[in-house]
Each structure stands twice: as structure tokens, then as C-alpha cells.
Amino acid sequence: MTIDEPRMQYPVPPAIEHAELLTYRAEFPILQRKTYLNSCSLGALSVRSMQGMEQFMEMWNEWGAHAWYEIWLGEVAKARHKFAALIGAQVHEVAIAPSVSVALSTIATALDYSKRHKVVMADLDFPTLIYQWLVKERLGVSSHFVKSADRITLAPELFEEAVDAQTALVATSRVFYTSGYIQDIRAIADIAHKQGAYILVDDYQGTGQIPINVNALDVDFLVTGTLKWLMGGPGLSFVYIREGLLPLIEPTITGWFGHRDQFQFKTDEFTFRMDAARVEMGTPAMPTVYAANGGLDIVQEISVESICERTRYLTNDLIARAREHGWTVHAPQEPECRSSIVMLELEHPQQIVQALVERNIIADYRPGLLRISPYFYNTIEENAIVIDAVAEILAKRK
Ligand SMILES: Cc1ncc(COP(=O)(O)O)c(C=O)c1O
């Protein structure tokens, strides 16, 4: 099926229990007030996450600092376990960080660029990934970019030309934030490993909406966070480090959470922990950990496979509706390479977003593009609402 076919030819796949998924709408109060179509920026807040944050406040109020030991650190452990299960990792391969930028900076300081000075990235990657190595140019690191001709897709073979024996790392996204394109990470990992380089995946736009198994993809490092498709809000990110690499990862930025004997408060030496938490630094943002556990539970309950089927269905419908208006859709042609980030090439998208807000519709924009990102809790009716509203806004411009 291609996106040129009319919308009515996208039947509801029978395998999807739409009715069951739609019962989750009651868990997200914002859906009762707004047409919310911006989950790739910030996942909707669930009642479970709100209850979690209330619980955090109750614990703070009841126990004060005594809550740290078993209750709060236990809550961090739960988040770590749930995330490990979600990506097919072992718990000791998972660390937490306050943001993906911090996670990336930490890993970036742990790599040895003395024998291999090159880092290969895609020009469609999110800026914060690229910046980590651009700022290391004065340390002799050279950044190399694989370029997308259509600014939407990127054939994995292009990495083959860029990666060589000088390459320390291939760092790229599984899902491009600019077009929703899903890269073939396994193919890119094979290319990196053939040359003796590592692969790091920025999975912020993938985790939660597209199934993943880090072992099947053979990745060395993965960073992601709870803000978007995990519906956990800002302040918590995850780092996966392949077990075999753990002893080699010794960042030059650290903190007391990375020390093997954290609660012995030694100041005469530093020994890294044995597990991935060796890259952790300071006190975690507990309200987010509680919120994230609510979001992670929902994702786990529904399963990423079902979420993916549902969002594919919604995305195909949205694209078909946009095409009926003759708008250019900035998305891959092949449905299996698409994710739930739909970009429409429309002039002055910021003005459109503002006019949508006035109609209680939340979408977003990037330069020259209106961005709509449905999630499993959205509906075909909401697709129709946003598309009709955009058509009306554009008609008024004429
Ligand atoms: C793909 C991707 N990577 C990284 C980030 C930034 O993450 P953080 O703000 O946690 O550093 C974003 C945020 O939108 C993103 O979409």
C-alpha cells in the first residue's frame, strides 16, 4: 500500500483491539479538553502518573529524607527494570540520566579518540546528538555527516561509504525527528562493527512507539528518555550500555552515584561501579521517576507492538487525509518506514499552530513544516478535526 491510495482503502486491521485501546483515553484528562496531537514532543499526562507524583509528595511530607533509601531508590529501580524489559536489555546494562543531552555528553567523554578520531552521524539527527562531537573538535575529534538527499530518508548503504578504520563511533537516531523515518539500525550496526567502530543510537523518537530489542539490533549504546512516547514527563532519561563494554566505559565527568561504594563517602579514590550506573552522576528527579513509572506501566500493559499497529493505522489515515487536500507530506513513501511523526510542508506553520491552539488543537511546527503526531490514544475523528481545521485556516489566508 502506498500513501497515494485513497483513505478509504485503509481498513481497520482486524488484529487491533481498537476498542480496548480506546478505553485508555479515560486515563488522559487532556484528551477530554483538547485534540492532543503532539506526543512526539510531550506525551500526554496520565491519571496514573499524576497519582504517582501525588504519592511522591505524600512520602516527602510523611518521611522526609528517610524516604530515599527504600522508597525512592526503590522507585528508581522499578523504572530501570521496566525500561530494561522494554528494550530487551539486562537491568545492569541500564543507567539513568536527567536528559539525553547529559547521557550523550557522558558517553562522549568515555570514548578513546586517540587511535580513531572520527564520529559518523546523519545530517537528519537531532542537534543535541551532533553537538557532543562538534564541541570535541578541539580535542581532535572529526565529525562526519551522512547526508540525506530528500531530507526524509537515508539508505543504510550510505553509512558504508562514510565508516572506515578511523571511525570510533557511529551515532545516529532510529527515528528521525524531522521526518519520522525509521532507520535500519541493524544494517548500520553491522557496517560500524565491520570496521571495528561502536554504534550509539539516539532512540528518543522510537522508544515506546516502535518495538526494539537492543540485542537483535546489535547496538552498543542507546539513549532515550521519558518525555515523549513513554509519557513520563521531563527529567528522566535512560542509557543502555552493552554488558561487554561496561568495564571500558569510564567517563571523565562523574558524581557520587557513579562510585562503587557510594555510601562510604570516600574522598581519597574513585572506583567506578561495575554496572551501567557507573555513568550516573547525582540525585535523580524523583517526581519524574514517579510519573515515568505510570507511563511505563501503560506502555508495558498495552505492548509496544499494539501501540505501533495502532499508530501506523492513524498515521496512514492522517497522511491520506492531508493528500486529499493536495498538501505535500514530508514522510517516507513506504508505510513500514514511517512512524507517528507526520510533517506537512505548509507555509508559516507557526501561525497555523497558533490558530489551532485557538481551536483547542495542539500540534507543533519545525521550520517550514507543520508537525502532527498521533499516539495510540488518538482517534480517526481527531485526525479529521485537525485536518479540517488546517484546511479552514489555510482557506482564510487566501
Ligand atoms: C531525537 C531526540 N534526541 C534528543 C532530544 C533532546 O533530549 P534532551 O532534551 O533530553 O537532551 C530530543 C528532543 O526533542 C529528540 O527528539
- CATH topology tier name of the largest domain: Aspartate Aminotransferase, domain 2
- Helix percent band: 25-40%
- The SS-based structural class is alpha/beta
Largest sheet: 7 strands, mixed
- What is the count of helical runs? 13
Shape: globular
Poorly predicted spans: 1-12
Give the radius of gyration: 22 Å
How large is the share of residues in beta strands? Answer: 5-15%
Mean pLDDT over the residues: 94
Number of strands: 13
What's the level 1 CATH class of the largest domain? Alpha Beta
Strand order of the largest sheet: 2-8-7-6-5-3-4
The CATH superfamily label of the largest domain reads Type I PLP-dependent aspartate aminotransferase-like (Major domain)
CATH architecture of the largest domain: 3-Layer(aba) Sandwich
Task: List ligands, each type once.
Answer: pyridoxal-5'-phosphate
Describe this structure in words.
With 398 residues, the chain is α/β, with parallel strands linked by helices. The chain is globular and about 70 Å long. The chain has 2 domains: 7-45 and 303-397, Aspartate Aminotransferase, domain 1 (Alpha-Beta Complex); 51-299, Type I PLP-dependent aspartate aminotransferase-like (Major domain) (Aspartate Aminotransferase, domain 2). A 7-stranded mixed sheet has the order 2-8-7-6-5-3-4, sandwiched between helices. The chain has 13 helices and 13 strands. Helix 5 (100-110) packs parallel to helix 6 (127-134) and helix 11 runs parallel beside helix 13. Residues 1-12 have low confidence and may be disordered. It binds pyridoxal-5'-phosphate (PLP). Pyridoxal-5'-phosphate is lined by residues 99-101, 126, 128, 173, 177, 202, 204-205, 225, 237.
